Amino acid sequence: MGGKFLMKKVTVISICFLLMLVSWIPTILSDEPVFATTLYVGGTGAGNYSTIQSAIDAASSGDTVFVYNGTYYENVIVNKTIDLIGEDKFGTIIHGNNNGDVVYVTSSFVNISGFMIQGSGFGHVDAGLEFDNVHHCIIEHNVITNNNFNGIRIKNSHNNTIEHNDILNNSYSGIALRTVCSTKITNNTISNNDYMGIDFYVFSNNNAIMNNSIHNNTYGIGLNSADNNTIKYNNFQNNDINAIRFLGSMNNVISSNYMNTHDLALRMHSSRVNTIINNTMTNNTNHSILLYSSSNRNEIISNTFNMNNNTGIYIRTSSENTIINNTIKTSDIGIKIVFTNHTNISSNYLLNNDFGIYLEESLNSMVTANNASSNNVGIYLLSSNNTIISHNQASFNTFSGINLWTNSNNNSISNNRVTNNSQGISLFEECSQNIIEGNNVTDNLYGIDIEGASTNNIITGNHVIKNFEAGIYIILNSTDNIIVNNIIEQNNDNGVSLYYSHFNSITGNLINNNTHNGIILHSNALNNTISDNTLKNNENGIWVYHSMNTTVRNNSASDNIRGIRLDNSHNNNLLNNIVTSNFDGIYFSSSDYNILSNNNISLNVQFGMHLYFSSFNQIYRNIITGLDTGIFLNYASNNTVFDNYFSNLNNAWDTGDNKWNISKTEGINIIGGSVLGGNYWSDYTGTDLDGDGLGDTNIPFGPGDYLPLTGFLDLNQSVFDRGFPIRHAIDGDWAGAQNYIPTVNMITRVEISMRKFGTPEFNLTVELREDHPQGILLDTKVFTPDEVPSSWEWFNIDFEDVTVTPDTEYFIVCPPAPSGVTTSFGYEWGYAFGNQYDDGAFWFTRDGGGLWRDLPTMYEFVFRTFGYN
Question: C-alpha angle with apex 142: 138 to 148, nearest 5 degrees?
Fold first, then answer.
């Protein structure tokens, strides 16, 4: 392709050079002196000629032939260098008797002015004024009209000037150029010609068309295999089809023209590397600009489009075009790209169109830094892939700010500001594997909307705030989408809504201050995962409604009316959640066969857990503290409640038939004892007679616990912010320790928040010491890397029971890696910012234990201790 470009360019330059060289040879060879005179035609002077041709025949090169007013019926041939001047362009008329050329010029340096030239023949080579193989001629201040084919025809010529003429009402083209180079066409009025105003054809190159008024022709200007021309400062009005038409033309500059009221203002077919800049196009019926059929690598820059009925810029089957800094208002479509690749659309302003930017069946486009506002749809992709949509403003659009439709896949939508639309960002009908990242999506009806079996999309790092319905809305069998690390706040309805959509993951989001639900799963939403989210000040932090097989884990739900709520939902797992300071912690209604385990439920106003008409649920290993009522089973039956920790004003209330313990079973219970049975009750006053950690008197206790646990959780520092490494490093071997003062007289075990990272070369060692991280060693436990989880969990260290001395500091120590470790993979111990525990401190070393330092008010490791008195 590049070779053909180069061959064409070399051919064009060669033709122009040969034309100029051949036409200059007579001038170079002639050095005889010239004495100019004036010959007169018409009028009353003695010796005046009666015909123009007879005067020209009598003239010498350099003479002037002056023609008085009158009508001269003749066909004039100018074959010598003269000035041919009419008295008045409206009164001095040359009429060609409807035969051949009216004036035919074969000599260079001819100037023709002051005539009305009309009545050429009907042949396709006939013209009012024809120039053949000439240069440096000037045609000015003429009226060229009513010729039966072309007004002016120039062929095989260069460096001519056509200016200040009225060229109108000719039956074909006003000006026809054939293999013409370096010609200036300026300040003419070219109108009402039946075909072209100006027609460039076959290697007409390096010409300048400037400051002309071109109106009421069929086509204003046509370029066919014409390159390197400049079309600038022209006024195009009311040409029937196009203001400018390109066919197979390259490297032309179209600048600062005004194009008004055409069917299609500027059309390019198979034309490349042209520049369209600073033009104004208004009131065109179809498109303002159309590029099609491999019109590649063109630039459309800083143009203004207004009130065009169909499309401002339409590109079809053409690639690598650039559209920058244009203003497009009040069209059906501002920019339309169809079956096209590698288009760059940047920094355009699109206002009051049906569609601001529209891509269909297109690939690898860049849509960046545009303002697409107050349209029906700001930016729209239909079956278009691998597009980057970034740093755009899409606001106040009637429907969508950014809309992907029907199999638009693998697109990136990032860092856009999308506000005040009906739908901020929407994906409809099987749009997959798109990334929606880092956008500011505010004040829309729906913030981000995923519908119609749109799958495997990632929604991450967005600010989704103050939308009037849902912040993020996923509906109608849209599966396997990931919603991660977004800020979703102050939406008028729900933060995240899933309706009849499955296998989606909602993780790591900050979801606060939404009017109704932080997260809602609705209408048979199946197999979704909700994890590691923070949900505050919503009506319900998480609401699972008529949905199944949901995993809700590691979330923090606080200051909501209900932290977590299930209605008519079955076979769900609620694991490791922190549910605190809500009105109700966890609420179930008509929800069966669910598992609630390892949740920390505290300081809720009314109930920690409230189960209403719900059955066959498993509730175990939860910590439920600081409440009016820990758990209320209201018309709920056949639930199993065991191995929970209750410390509340009223620990339990049961109006149904439920099971409050399992059979005595070996295993570590929630307060560190060695057997499982019932629950730990802060108000149990019975006695463990046989020392097995289970109460033997005052049973069944409370709602019906026959095996209440004795002993208790001693200290619980569960606030977590990030992890501290236990590893080998270039700057030293890192290790950590936490000191504390127990309130029990027997330590049974501790738990720390721990995970491994990478593939550690060494085992994890956990020590219990007295007085200092290197003080008296009381017990040691060693764990292989396979025994340590790779995600954050409470990690149990079951020390031998240790009798403690009152008011003595004890240290949980993770010592440095042993010598010989070569990689930095290791373990992380969770810690929190601030002084979370007054009687202890965060200790660390970075030199393999040579120097231990404490930071008593800055940090606290995550730990909890268990024992009994």
Answer: 105
